[in-house]
């Protein structure tokens, strides 16, 4: 599994403090709870074991997270199947695959940790989701408060979140499909929040092995530098960033753009290759929908944990920018 699934703060924090001081449930408190989740995932020290479920697939991983001198440090180790490990320090991400003797190193300016939300853009979520509190429950032995977000349109899925009442850390999350089914879930089965981590919790386990290093080269693109236009922007989604990426020296460069509404995210990959006349198609990989489109000599891939309509609509509006 090469995917381990995954930034105004002061205003939401003030709303939360006012709500607690008043001792009443305010209409804006669910949004403040989301802000606490977003901040908790990036600012807290925690460690634990979580289970990721998608269809028939179940993966168990161990995570440790801390912040040192304002820099997030995180280590995720897969506990099932072949050994795999991801280390993140700030924007640098290292992925270890010891069975393949491979280490992939990449700098990602807009890297999202897991589990995490995007604090930027949360203020506009009520326009696109109905947000409400959904009671309390115990998760991994910790008392939690629940939130439910129901989409107001057909361009996004629903979400359920359970956060630690004391710290705001996300303890459990469900991605809800169009028929109310659970498409994907993440759940801590054991968690320790706050305090120092165990000795070596953030140290790489496979650092000393002889691994082939694959350095992924990326460079940020701004404005018209990308050379592509997106004519069908989805309501509520905004462009977080664009990069030019090269996986290996002998491979062509590709463009990668990321769009998000604060919860859902969509990636667009554009690279040369493919054959003219290929049929555009939408496919699914678990909760991820993928739209492939051939545009002249370029292959476009649009993918994200959103309904098929969303990836196809965004993909059909991509075109070369006229010079």
List the helices and strands and how they pair.
Elements: H1 9-22, H2 29-43, E1 46-54, E2 57-68, E3 71-78, E4 85-89, E5 92-97, E6 102-107, E7 129-139, E8 142-151, E9 158-164, E10 170-176, E11 182-193, E12 212-220, E13 228-230, E14 238-246, E15 254-260, E16 265-272, E17 281-285, E18 288-295, E19 298-304, H3 308-316, E20 318-320
Parallel strand pairs: 6-12
Antiparallel strand pairs: 1-2, 1-11, 2-3, 3-4, 4-5, 5-6, 7-8, 8-9, 9-10, 10-11, 12-14, 13-20, 14-15, 15-16, 16-19, 17-18, 18-19
Helix pairs in contact: 1-2
Major sheet description: 18 strands, mixed
Assembly of the depicted chains: single chain
The low-pLDDT segments are: 1-27
Helix content: 10-25%
- Give the beta-strand count: 20
> Which fold does the CATH topology of the largest domain refer to?
outer membrane lipoprotein receptor (LolB), chain A
The H-level CATH homologous superfamily of the largest domain, spelled out, is Lipoprotein localisation LolA/LolB/LppX
């Amino acid at each position: 599994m090469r995917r381990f699934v995954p930034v105004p703060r002061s205003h939401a924090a003030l709303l939360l403090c006012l709500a607690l001081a008043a001792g009443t449930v305010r209409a804006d408190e669910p949004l403040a709870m989301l802000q606490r989740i977003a901040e908790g995932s990036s600012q807290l020290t925690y460690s634990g074991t979580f289970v990721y479920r998608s269809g028939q697939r179940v993966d168990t991983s161990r995570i440790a997270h801390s912040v040192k001198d304002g820099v997030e440090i995180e280590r995720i180790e897969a506990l099932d199947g072949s050994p795999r490990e991801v280390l993140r320090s700030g924007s640098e991400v290292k992925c270890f695959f010891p069975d393949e003797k491979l280490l992939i190193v990449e700098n990602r300016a807009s890297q999202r940790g897991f589990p995490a939300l995007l604090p930027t853009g949360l203020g506009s979520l009520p326009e696109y989701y109905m947000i409400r509190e959904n009671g309390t429950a115990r998760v991994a032995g910790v008392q939690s408060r629940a939130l439910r977000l129901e989409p107001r349109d057909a361009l996004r899925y629903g979400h359920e979140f359970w956060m630690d009442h004391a710290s705001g850390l996300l303890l459990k999350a469900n991605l809800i499909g169009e028929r109310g089914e659970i498409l994907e879930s993440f759940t801590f089965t054991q968690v320790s929040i706050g305090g120092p981590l165990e000795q070596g919790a953030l140290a790489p386990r496979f650092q000393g092995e002889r691994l082939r290093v694959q350095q992924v080269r990326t460079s940020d693109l701004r404005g018209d530098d990308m050379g592509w236009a997106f004519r069908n922007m989805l309501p509520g989604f905004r462009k977080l960033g664009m990069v030019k990426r090269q996986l290996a020296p002998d491979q062509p460069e590709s463009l990668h753009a990321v769009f998000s509404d604060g919860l859902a995210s969509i990636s667009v990959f554009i690279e040369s290759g493919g054959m003219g006349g290929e049929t555009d198609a939408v496919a699914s990989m678990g909760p991820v929908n993928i739209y492939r489109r051939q545009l002249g000599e370029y292959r476009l891939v649009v993918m994200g944990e959103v309904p098929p309509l969303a990836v196809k609509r965004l993909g059909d509006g991509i075109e070369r920018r006229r010079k």
